[in-house]
Amino acid sequence: MRPHTTYSAMLAPFILLASAPLGVLAGDVLKTNGYSSCLTGTPDIKVNKLDITFDRSTKKVVFDVSGTNEKEQKVMATLVVNAYGKEVYKKEFDPCDEGTKVEQLCPVPSGTFGARGEQSVPDQYLSAIPSIAFSVPDIDSQATMKLTAKDGGQDLACITSQVSNGQSLSTAGVQYIAAGIAGAALVVTGLASLAGAGQAGAPSSSPTFTDVIGWFQGMALNGMMSADVPGVYRNWATNFGFSTGLIYWDGMQVSIDDFRANTGGNLTQNSVEFLKNATLVHVNQNMTLTKRAVNMFLRARDDLNVDQSDNTNSTEGESKFLHEVKGVQGFVEQYTVPNGNAFMTVLLIFAIVIAVITVGILLFKVILETWALFGSFPKKLTGFRKRYWWTLAKTITNLILLLYGIWVLYCVYQFKNGDSWGAKTLAGVTLAAFTGVLVFFTWKIWSTANKFKKMEGKPDALYDNKEVWRKYSMFYENYKKSYWWIFVPAIVYMFARGCVIAGADGHGLAQAAGQLIVEALLLITLLWTRPYSLKSGNVINIIIQVVRVLSVICILLFVEELGMTQTTKTVTGLVLVVVQASLTGVLAILIAVNAIIICCKENPHRKKRKEAEKARDLDNLTPLDARNSLLMDPQEYKRTSLPSPFGPRTVGYDRVPLAEQHTAYTGPGGRQFSDDQGHLLADASTFGRAPSHDRSPSRERDDVEYGYAQPPGYGPVAGGAPWQPGMQQTGPPGKGGYAY
């Protein structure tokens, strides 16, 4: 038992010294974070519980240990402290020597033993402890205690534990903030869509919900890399696992385990129950294991209040076992999601989201239908009533487009590492279905663009035609008209990235190099085309892609083949965390700015549309258009009329000459004006002369301005209509003139 007491007393100062390279938070406590056996085979001395805490303010080490021993024996103890991949302290001592005497280990008693107490830390150690050791999150430090038989040197026990200062970048607070940013982006993007009122050609201001989720997914994927990623960055990436569909739900995991068990899966070391009792360790290049415990399950569940004798009555705590992980497996199992359950977890989360969206849209439709029955229905919502199923289909397609890259990754990973034929079948079917949906829409958009290009010489109707925009705009709405096709390289990029990360899992160098090529090609495409219609979209997405490329370059430094020191990796990981956290903060600020703009500023697309409609109304006016007197200022089009040979005209319409013209139908049966029909013309000529109506301004101009010359034979007749033809007849005697 006392070997653990000695371990407790000596552990704190050395792990503090080991933590010197990092820093920046606050606290006065260091403690072990879980434990595991580092001895192959069954040890003679079994430790069931190990909790050690060092408090700088009290200068005390508080310990709580318990275990069992098969027989009483004398031992030698060895304490080893590693920090950032280097062995910084090692000491072997005899618990029976006067200088290092530990009564409970001299000798180790048989049966159950345990102790709970505290020891003081000498000032000589405290003075050498740097303050930053208490402030750096996720310090990369491990302590190992080995017990060997004094006679023969046989290994009796080996316990390793991660040392923590209580600070970690993988916290619920960071995850809630990230989820809040994503939720705010979703709300702002939705408000922007409503403000645009579905107007064709209206892009959304960046960062959109798609931009934010894509950024979060990129950080999470970096944490899935098989390179020797430092713990500080690995824990940071864990905060964004929700964007990849990894959400822990115990009941769901148990159900997936049952499904896998019934379809050929092996649950021996690949189940949720296994993970609950395991200590995750990430394989490292300089050490056999770099330990990272699962906090929720690594604490021993039984409190041991025991005396320091053989006859203690205590409940034996549960033993934990070492579980080596790396790459995608290490990332997903930090959420207590078994490696074999990863795809099924994402599939069920996707199904739940689809169900919630479907129910929400259906409920909204029911509300609208009820509203329409009992009240005045808003005109803006009529489109939703007519296109309910299309709205649902479009929403699902949007979700597929958002998760396609992640879906490819999990499906390929399931094909490579899955053990259940049922899960593999579902992975193949869903991947084919999702890819088929995207291929179908790509073909439809491409064929539509080609059709309009043949008809009009350019495919601008993808943006200008409201019906086409309503159907397909989700793929290209934020791109310029000349780069509507850029969504195709984007889909190819998502597919390639997922295949590289999942396909090369376990091969850090190949994985990092492949992803670097994929990310660099997308960056070159963005820099070359600058496809976003808004300047903010180009700037934000190019910056995001630059950071992605830099992140992959940093991860390339972590691969074991390059042989970088652990200290260099840790510092690089911290720099990467700072850069990514800063960009995340900037995106959050921009989302807030967009929300303010949406609430306070007139929608520019609607304003532009109204101006275009007004200009079209002006261009469509004709001299006979009744809107002349309604929509225009009469003074705007007034001009001084030229003098008429027949005198001034103040009221009435322009004269309509009735001289005999051969343009009228004069064949047999042709209609002519007889004497008894002259009064009809006289009466009709007075139409429009009522003093209560003003003349249309466009008709005040003289006929000369329009190239009209008065033909001879027309003139005013006393008592007749002002524009009635003269008395002389050019037609047959006794007949009226022909209609003009």
From TrEMBL:
Residues 685-740 are annotated as: Disordered. Pfam families: TRP, TRP_N. Residues 691-704 have a biased composition (Basic and acidic residues). Residues 28-170 form the ML-like domain. It is found in: Membrane. Residues 1-26 form the signal peptide. One of its GO terms (cellular component) is membrane. The chain crosses the membrane at residues 342-368, 388-410, 425-446, 483-503, 509-528, 540-559, 571-600. InterPro entries: TRP_C, TRP_Flc/Pkd2-like, TRP_N. GO terms for biological process: fungal-type cell wall biogenesis; transmembrane transport. It is a multi-pass membrane protein. PANTHER family: DUF907 DOMAIN PROTEIN (AFU_ORTHOLOGUE AFUA_2G06100), INTEGRAL MEMBRANE PROTEIN (AFU_ORTHOLOGUE AFUA_7G01610). Belongs to the transient receptor potential (TRP) ion channel family. This is TRP-domain-containing protein. The lineage of its organism: Eukaryota, Fungi, Dikarya, Ascomycota, Pezizomycotina.
